[in-house]
Specification:
alpha/beta; 8-stranded mixed β-sheet; 3-stranded antiparallel β-sheet; 9 helices; 33% helix; 23% strand; binds N,N,N-trimethyl-histidine; methyltransferase; MeTrfase_EgtD-like; transferase; EgtD_Methyltrsf_superfamily
């Protein structure tokens, strides 16, 4: 069974049907996400970049290894690498061991492309890409125990359910050692109208990003009756769960058959498929949750507008 088939089996035949957000990111989807990060309505990427820029020195500290989970193009990390890969003695407090950067991602091609580019751009930086599912890391992370800085940026921690997030933090704690630090980017609760706009932009880029998932599914698994013209994009604020939800809502009755799975799924007009949750946090509650998993409280920074947060915690 392929990865998509097992994801569908797990979520597509329950109520509501769900598909995990990782199926957004084929080549087209990755380009669309890139456009999303530059939309006027989508503040998280810019807000996080602002914090990284102003706090780079505090974040890097005396780390000897930087591990980035879900590194992608490593674009947002460069501002940290500028500090991290600077020659020692240039004012930094780092030991004089060669700085090691470990980008971790499931997308092999993008990972190796960006690793190659970084190696060329930062002489003196050792880049050791790791292809892995970030929810299933095993063994100790590369690098010197106690000298690691683990980055999980972009607010992706919000894409987990409450249970998945607890599992993720427990796993992460298990692969980190005493003295290792974690920097976590998270989106903050704010006016629902702004949140909805960030996930339902006027140009329809996010709508296209969401609908593209149907093309990915139709192309990747044998199926009939799955067609994007039968769906429309929807972003809703779920106040009870403190999260934005992205849905693909059927505009007419739909029946989708998956011969290799031996299953079919009917959706009445108005029924939806949930493709993403994006949890928004109150900093104190998130810090308490991190503490429960053995991460000691450190500074929490926000951008000037107070839209996005970055927490630094220590094992
Ligand atoms: C990259 C997963 C953090 O949830 O805000 C953007 C993805 N989805 N617009 C997010 C996304 C719709 C984004 N993350």
């Amino acid at each position: 069974m392929t990865a998509l088939e097992s994801d569908l089996r797990e979520g597509f035949f329950s109520d509501p049907p769900t598909v995990p957000p990782r199926w957004f990111y084929d080549e087209k989807g990755s380009l669309l996400f890139d456009r999303i990060t530059r939309l006027a309505e989508y503040y998280p990427t810019r807000a996080e970049a602002e914090i990284l820029r102003s706090r780079a020195v505090d974040i890097v500290g005396d780390a000897s290894t930087v591990v980035e989970l879900g590194a992608g193009t490593c674009e947002k990390t460069r501002v940290l690498l500028d500090v991290f890969a600077a020659p020692p003695g240039g004012g930094g407090a780092r030991a004089d061991a060669a700085p090691l950067f470990v980008p971790v991602d499931i997308s092999t091609e993008m990972l190796f492309d960006s690793a190659r580019a970084l190696t060329a751009e930062y002489p003196g930086l050792t880049v050791e890409p790791v292809v892995a599912d970030l929810t299933a890391l095993d063994g100790p992370l590369p690098g010197e125990s106690g000298g690691r800085l683990v980055l999980f940026l972009g607010g992706t921690v919000g894409n987990f359910s409450e249970d998945q997030r607890a599992d993720f933090l427990a796993m992460l704690r298990g692969v980190m050692d005493s003295g290792d630090r974690l920097v976590l980017g998270f989106d903050l609760v704010k006016d629902p109208a702004r949140l909805v706009a960030a996930y339902d932009d006027a140009d329809g880029v996010t709508a296209e990003f969401n609908l593209n998932m149907l093309d990915v599914i139709a192309r990747t698994v044998e199926c009939t009756g799955l067609d994007r013209v039968d769906f429309r994009h929807e972003a809703v604020w779920n106040a009870d769960e403190s999260r934005i939800e992205m849905w693909l809502r059927a505009v007419r009755d739909v029946r989708i058959d998956f011969p290799t799975l031996g299953c079919s799924r009917t959706l009445d007009a108005g029924a939806g498929i949930r493709t993403e949750i994006a949890r928004k946090f109150e900093p104190d509650a998130l810090m308490d949750e991190l503490a429960e998993h053995g991460f000691l409280r450190g500074p929490v920074w926000t951008d000037d507008a107070g839209d996005f947060g970055l927490a630094l915690v220590v094992v």
